[in-house]
């Protein structure tokens, strides 16, 4: 329950603190006194939109703080899952700076707006004056029936299976699109792969052929140079090897006489041996180099093919061409694997779809089971609140599986026993919607395990006996929940366990909103004013007193 609400620097409230009771809390006051401003402030700590325009003093921040004394298992679980402190009481605070920046805190720990909204949904059901529009929405209507039918666990299982079926279906579509794209390129890719496979180039082949062809094309010059070098080293009139050998023979006779000569002789000996080896290798190369016109022609033809493929695919060497060949082969192979993946995902989707369908059937059965009792109870309450000829009918139609099952639930309304039921959103007036909402919420409040119910002027368009019955229903709701209700109806105010009066007070030339809890005598006078205005008689006081006692 909401134990205390502290408001600072919000609209025409400079600072205000209210402590609420456990059962039915009624808030009254003249129009414009600031009752709805209280609800606006409360909406902020429940995750509502922040606006710096609400600041009274623009150089100070606005602070709204709510203290909740009751923690349900769902709230405890929320705090654990979000690593938030577990305290004796639950403290929610919202701050708005002059710049319009907003910060939220849960038990003095910074929290996101999403966390605040999720927690608020577990603590408070806030019904404001225009929230009756929700009554005409399909999601709200289904949630009402689900609350009564206690479908939570089954619905959670269903949504898990449904999401997995949808995810598998999306993957199937994506893979099919990919397969279709690859299939369109398939014929061309097969042609490219066949062409490259037929060419059958090995690693570095084009570069090796280029080098070999250069040798063949320059074989005559190469052979001449090799022959000249070989002759100069080992043949001819004065071959270099023979000259070195002669020099060595002359020097060797003096190696024992001159320091340093032995090492030079040794080096010349090494040079002579190396030149002799070189001459032999040059002669060998000379024998290897021979112009082969057939080989040259074959190389030119294969190089031509290689150059054409390099140019066609925009690559520079054999390695890049072979990589391209492997990539094309992988693409074609992927098409086969995609078919296998698609088939596997289709099986998975079907499995989840079948499980979801079975759970959707369970949901339908649970929902249909509570409809007769729901209709009966709501219609009985409508009679009590001054709508004896009105009837509500809950219609369920089956359709394709969706996020909440296969059921489309719609509340139909007949205001005059005409047996012509139409969707609520089309035929119910504002006053009728308010009473319908109260009748419905009184049915689901227990099922939804909502500690606090807040009604902001739900009594719009009613008076007299209907208002008295609304008060009685509020009183009944207050036995199992904390109810906070803003009202203009004395019949409802008279049922309060705690009555708060909102008023304006001029201070330092400014109007300020104030609130106080009324004592017994003040309550009687407040209800008398609601009955007959500021000038009330003893008779009116007597009526007000009787309303409170009864």
UniProtKB/TrEMBL annotation:
Functional description taken from the UniProt entry: May be involved in recombinational repair of damaged DNA.
Native source species: Dinghuibacter silviterrae
GO MF entry, a single one: ATP binding
Entry keyword set: ATP-binding, Coiled coil, DNA damage, DNA repair, Nucleotide-binding
Name this polypeptide is given: DNA repair protein RecN
Gene Ontology biological process terms in this record: DNA recombination; DNA repair; SOS response
Pfam families, alphabetized: SMC_N (PF02463)
One GO term describing the cellular component: bacterial nucleoid
InterPro entries tied to this protein: DNA_recomb/repair_RecN (IPR004604), P-loop_NTPase (IPR027417), RecF/RecN/SMC_N (IPR003395)
Sequence similarity: Belongs to the RecN family.
Top-rank taxon, per record: Bacteria
UniProt domain RecF/RecN/SMC N-terminal: residue ranges: 2-506
């Amino acid at each position: 329950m909401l134990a205390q609400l502290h408001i600072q620097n919000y609209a025409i409230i400079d600072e205000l603190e209210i402590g609420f009771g456990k059962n039915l809390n009624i808030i009254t006051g003249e129009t414009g006194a600031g009752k709805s401003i209280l609800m606006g402030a409360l909406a902020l700590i429940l995750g509502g939109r922040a606006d710096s325009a609400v600041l009274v003093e623009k150089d100070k921040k606005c602070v709204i703080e709510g203290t909740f004394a009751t923690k349900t298992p769902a709230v405890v679980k929320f705090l654990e899952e979000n690593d938030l402190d577990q305290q004796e009481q639950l403290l929610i605070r919202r701050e708005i700076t002059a710049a319009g920046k907003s910060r939220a805190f849960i038990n003095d720990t910074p929290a996101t707006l999403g966390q605040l909204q999720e927690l608020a949904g577990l603590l408070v059901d806030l019904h404001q004056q225009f929230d009756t529009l929700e009554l005409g929405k399909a999601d709200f209507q289904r949630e009402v029936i689900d609350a009564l039918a206690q479908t939570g666990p089954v619905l959670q299982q269903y949504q898990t299976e449904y999401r997995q079926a949808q995810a598998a279906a999306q993957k199937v579509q994506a893979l099919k699109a990919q397969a279709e794209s690859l299939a369109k390129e398939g014929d061309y890719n097969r042609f490219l792969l066949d062409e490259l496979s037929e060419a059958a180039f090995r690693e570095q082949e084009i570069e090796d052929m280029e080098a070999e062809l250069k040798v063949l094309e320059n074989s005559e010059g190469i052979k001449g140079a090799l022959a000249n070098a070989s002759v100069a080293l080992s043949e001819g009139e004065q071959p270099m090897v023979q000259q070195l050998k002669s020099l060595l023979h002359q020097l060797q006779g003096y190696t024992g006489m001159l320091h340093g000569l032995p090492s030079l002789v040794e080096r010349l000996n090494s040079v002579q041996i190396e030149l002799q080896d070189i001459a032999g290798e040059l002669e060998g190369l000379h024998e290897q180099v021979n112009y082969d016109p057939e080989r040259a022609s074959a190389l030119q033809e294969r190089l031509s093919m290689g150059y054409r493929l390099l140019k066609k695919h925009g690559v520079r060497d054999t390695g890049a061409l072979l990589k391209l060949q492997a990539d094309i082969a992988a693409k074609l192979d992927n098409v086969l694997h995609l078919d296998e993946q698609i088939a596997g995902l289709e099986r998975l989707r079907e499995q989840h779809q079948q499980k979801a369908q079975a759970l959707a059937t369970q949901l339908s059965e649970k929902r249909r089971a509570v409809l007769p009792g729901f209709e009966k109870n709501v219609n009985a309450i409508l009679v009590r609140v001054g709508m004896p000829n009105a009837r509500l009918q809950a219609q369920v139609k089956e359709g394709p599986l969706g996020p909440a099952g296969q059921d489309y639930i719609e509340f139909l309304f007949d205001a005059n026993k005409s047996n012509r039921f139409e969707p609520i959103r089309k035929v119910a007036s504002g006053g009728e919607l308010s009473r319908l909402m109260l009748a419905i919420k009184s049915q689901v409040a227990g099922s939804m395990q909502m500690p606090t119910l807040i009604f902001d002027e739900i009594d719009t368009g009613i008076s007299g006996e209907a208002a008295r019955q609304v008060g009685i229903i509020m009183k009944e709701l207050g036995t199992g929940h904390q109810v906070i209700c803003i009202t203009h109806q004395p019949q409802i105010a008279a049922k309060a366990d705690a009555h708060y009066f909102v008023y304006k007070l001029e201070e330092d030339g400014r109007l300020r909103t104030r609130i106080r809890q009324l004592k017994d005598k003040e309550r009687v006078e407040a209800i008398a004013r609601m009955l007959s205005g500021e000038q009330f008689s003893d008779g009116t006081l007597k009526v007000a007193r009787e309303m409170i006692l009864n």
